[in-house]
Amino acid sequence: MSKDKVRRVLQEALRVWSDVTPLTFAEVHGGRADIIIDFTRYWHGDNLPFDGPGGILAHAFFPRTHREGDIHFDYDESWTVGNSMGTDLLQVAAHEFGHVLGLQHSLEPGAVMSPFYSFSYPLELSEDDRRGIQHLYGPRRSNPPFTGTETNEIPSTPDACRTNFDAVSMIRGELFFFKSGYVWRIRDGRLQPGYPALASRHWKGIPESIDAAFEDKSGNIWFFQGDNYWVYDAERQITGPDSVRSLGLPVANIQAALMWGEDKEKIYFFKEGSYWRFSSVENRVVDAHPRSMHDWRGVPRNTDAAFQDQHGFAQFFSGQQYWKFDPVELRVLEGYPRNVGEDFFGCVSSGNP
Predict the structure, then answer these.
(1) Any signal peptide, and if so, which residues (predicted)?
(2) What is the per-residue pLDDT across 295-328, written as a single tens digit (0 to 9) for each?
């Protein structure tokens, strides 16, 4: 992980606490600092040695102790962010920042301040975390009262049982459905509590509605809307809006994007009966000339969304139906299409028996 990326992750970890308190944090390059961060190995001068990969990940010193504000991370850990392939730096950093701010461990399972490391994406404070930090520093000051024009408009949340989705993508092993600025999150076949939620809760700056989305081999998440695309590393925006023309794509408003194959290097864009192969190595479409959807036997000409499931099948969505595509036979499986609402959200069929 590059130094710049580590810096951005640490800033995001601090923001977890500043978002709910009056605290503000700024990096300084000289003079006195309240929090000092170091990546070090084994014995490093504080009588709390690290032990190589695994085991002790980091430690921090509480306020009003002889090394208050110091945080040490074990350099030998396989640090990552936004996935479970290593040790998530964002999760650990937020925990250690909690300590230097004065928080003890929480007994609430899943809390940021839980004494046991567990990967959780996206990172969110538990109610116990929030109460603890606000007990020490108070809640964040509210914004000035709104003085604009009042309206009676209440935005309506789309009904997953009756809607066609804008995009569907497998992200960090979880399934995300997108529609009109909202997102549904499914883990292990179950819709997670608190969803649907605004997609901007996860990805600040994401357009209100998207045409397509996929997660690439490195774990970056790509969103497409109209003529533009955006790329995020977990919840942090890397680039965008950028023109899809810079990718060599000759059309706008693509209907679906699919990352497919065991190596996760086959990426396809779909629109109105045509598709394009995209090279993640060259960051361009392989050929600007489109190929026909007839290559995907049994898949409808117009698709709203697509993703690859954990078994390697590609699933295509059109309207309120979906098709499962066999990667070996290279055709849609028997028994499809099926209803999206019934299979993914447990909706009750309104049809007659």
Answers:
(1) none
(2) 999 999 999 999 999 888 999 999 999 999 999 9
| Continuous segment of H or E residues that includes residue 226 | none
- 257 annotated binding-site participant: yes
State the pLDDT confidence band at 173, using cuts at 50, 70 and 90. confident
In the chain, residues under CATH classification 2.110.10.10 are 167-345
150 is catalytic: no
Instruction: State the burial class of residue 154 (Cβ atoms within 10 Å of its Cβ: 0-12, 13-18, 19+).
Output: exposed
Q: Which H or E element spans position 241?
A: strand 236-243
SS3 178: strand
Query: 88 among the known binding-site residues?
Result: no
Tens of pLDDT along 122-151? 788 999 999 999 999 998 876 555 444 444
Annotated binding residue at 82? Answer: no
Classified by CATH at the fold level, domain 3-137 comes out as Collagenase (Catalytic Domain) (3.40.390)
Which of the following is catalytic: 27, 96, 124, 272?
96
Instruction: For residue 259, list its beta bridge partners.
Output: 267
Q: Is 34 annotated as a binding residue?
A: yes
Residues ≥6 apart with Cβ < 8 Å to 244:
224, 227, 228, 229, 251, 252, 254
CATH superfamily label, 167-345: Hemopexin-like domain (2.110.10.10)
Q: Is 343 annotated as a binding residue?
A: no
